[in-house]
Write a structure and sequence with these properties.
This protein has a single domain, classed as 3-Layer(aba) Sandwich (Rossmann fold). 57% of the residues lie in helices and 13% in strands. It contains 8 helices and 5 strands, in the order βαβααβααβααβα. The protein has helices at residues 15-28, 43-53, 62-86, 97-107, 112-123, 138-144, 157-173, 187-206; strands at residues 3-8, 33-37, 90-94, 130-135, 178-182. A 5-stranded parallel beta sheet has the order 2-3-1-4-5, sandwiched between helices. α1 (15-28) packs across α8 (187-206), α4 packs antiparallel against α5 and α4 (97-107) packs across α7 (157-173). It is globular, with a radius of gyration of 16 Å.
């Protein structure tokens, strides 16, 4: 019954809220499930998260940023995700490799081939069964965020527009894996759409 689900989206899209809602729903159904997030989810990952998120006097180069995310991901895959999947659990991850592709690739302007190579090294051929992408314009998403803002939320609007463009391109390139949802819909309606998709996947696995 193992199933790997990732939630993706720009700032303020509500993916963390929906990941938690799906986790609660699966728990209610008696389905073994693990909820985790990126960057973080492990002792090492949580330390890296602090470095990546907080505002700093000295900047982090895009290349260093890419490798820090990869280091956090390697540990999360080895310590949390793979063991849970091997035990037949559903794993929900709030952000995964696609975040690096769009934030460091499209957003920061790093070579996409290089980003994909680093991603592949970090995930060791592990790909989500489904990617739930909550799509919202950067203007609307950032307006939802409250202070204090982290390093990424403080980026200019053009950065966030490139991130959204990257997500949309990734979704078009792999339509069978990606579920694109309008993030401006009411929370309950989004949760209903998500559950409809996941319950169908679980039914197919049970056949």
């Amino acid at each position: 019954m193992s199933l790997f689900i990732t939630f993706e989206g720009g700032e303020g899209c509500g993916k963390s809220t929906q990941a938690k809602a799906l986790y609660r729903k699966l728990c209610q159904q008696g389905i073994p499930v693990v909820l985790t997030h990126e960057p973080g989810g492990t002792t090492l990952g949580n330390e890296i998260r602090k470095l990546l998120k907080r505002k700093q006097e000295s900047s982090i180069s895009p290349q260093a940023e890419l490798l820090l995310f990869a280091a956090s991901r390697v540990q999360l895959v080895a310590e949390v995700i793979c063991p849970a999947l091997e035990e037949g659990k559903v794993v929900i991850c709030d952000r995964f490799a696609h975040s690096t592709l769009v934030y460091q690739g499209y957003g920061r302007g790093l070579d996409l081939t290089t980003v994909e190579m680093v991603n592949n090294l970090a995930v060791q051929n592990l790909n989500p069964d489904t990617v739930i992408f909550l799509d919202i314009s950067p203007e609307q998403g950032l307006a939802r965020k409250r202070a204090p803002k982290d390093r990424f939320e403080l980026e200019d609007l053009s950065f966030h527009r490139r991130v959204r463009e990257g997500y949309l391109k990734a979704a078009v390139a792999d339509p069978n894996r990606w579920l694109v949802i309008d993030a401006t819909l009411p929370k309950r309606e989004i949760a209903k759409i998500v559950w409809g998709e996941i319950s169908q996947l679980l039914s197919n696995l049970a056949l």
